[in-house]
Amino acid sequence: MKIVRIDTHIVEIPFNDGGKGQGITPTTWNTLENVLIRLEDEHGNVGWGEAFGYFVADATKALIDRLIAPLLLNREITDIAAWNREIQLRLHLFGRYGVTMFAISGVDIGLWDLAARRQGVPLHRLLGNATREQIPAYASMVRYADNEVAPGICEKALQMGFRDIKLHEVTLDEIASCRRAIGDQVPLATDVNCSWSVENTREWLPALRDMKLAWLEEPIFPPEDFATLASLRGQGVPLSAGENWCTALQFEQALVSGAVDSIQPSVTKVGGISECLRIAEAASQHKAVVLPHCPYFGPGLIATLHLAAVQPTVPQVEYLFVEPAGWLYPIEALRQGNQLHIPQGAGLGVDIDTAVIERFRRS
């Protein structure tokens, strides 16, 4: 397929989470910044991709426009995975991680969507053998830092049909208040986004074990300190990480080191669908559980569903528990309780809402 047009858009959609929007992020977080990539081939077929953009959307878009688009426009693509490796090599001077890989990720997703649409098949048909048509999702909370609000939001998620919850609370008191609200039988995890010291993590693991924590996510900084993570395992609290690792190489190193009990690749960050398939192969070889990081509602989430369709080692996916002012895709129509339906149409399988793009496009 020949790519004859590339358009990138920053679409910023406000959301409501029931809290103050003040937590682990650099500034108040109350909008979803989507870096969307529209690819068009020589026959007028269109594919959509998404590059990670929260707080760095402008940088991600600039990298696509200035460095990737000139290398892709009017290019004949016959092997997306090979193109992905080639572009990683061409751009490695600008960083193997961070916005460089975010940008590559978004274009890669768009290429896979376009390839599947050209063939008139759902994306998962190009990725492997699908074993299911829906997958469980857990409710992923924002950080509330409020012992009344956070438990109430947890209860709301259960009322909406979710059966598993992940917090972003960072104190034992906050976590315990949510555990008391939902009882001991509901799986409860927390992501502290690297905010704990190694010493505090070791000290607090027994209490987290007593709370029956499903997993502790990214306890320490830096997130790629695989040796220290490995030393924290085996104390009754499963460890998980990966949203801040990029490329299959880092995931392979983490698995070899025994750093975590489950890995969390993010398709909009690691290098796209092509790199997620490489990570899936590594996970299979190491018999590792894959818990995809996907707190977004654009092509990245839909691509995650298609990847999960062909990966039996993915027990559930992440569902960001907020209420956007507009939906790029009819996500709630895909959800039934805690199950997300995997679209079966061509490509990503569901059409993006261009009216929402126009309404929330950022100049």
TrEMBL record:
**Keywords, sorted A to Z:** Magnesium, Metal-binding
- Cofactors named for this entry: Mg(2+)
What name does UniProt use for this protein? Mandelate racemase/muconate lactonizing enzyme family protein
**SMART domains per the UniProt record, alphabetical:** MR_MLE
Write one Pfam family the protein is assigned to. MR_MLE_N
Task: List the molecular function annotations (GO) for this entry.
Answer: hydro-lyase activity; magnesium ion binding
InterPro entries, alphabetically?
Enolase-like_C_sf, Enolase-like_N, Enolase_C-like, Mandelate_racemase_C, Mandelate_racemase_N_dom, RHMD-like
Look up keyword Secreted and say if it applies.
Answer: no
Q: Superkingdom, according to UniProt?
A: Bacteria
Q: Which SUPFAM superfamilies match?
A: Enolase C-terminal domain-like, Enolase N-terminal domain-like
Entry annotated with the keyword Chloroplast: no
Among the GO biological process terms of this entry, one is: carbohydrate catabolic process
Q: Which residues form the Mandelate racemase/muconate lactonizing enzyme C-terminal domain?
A: 147-238
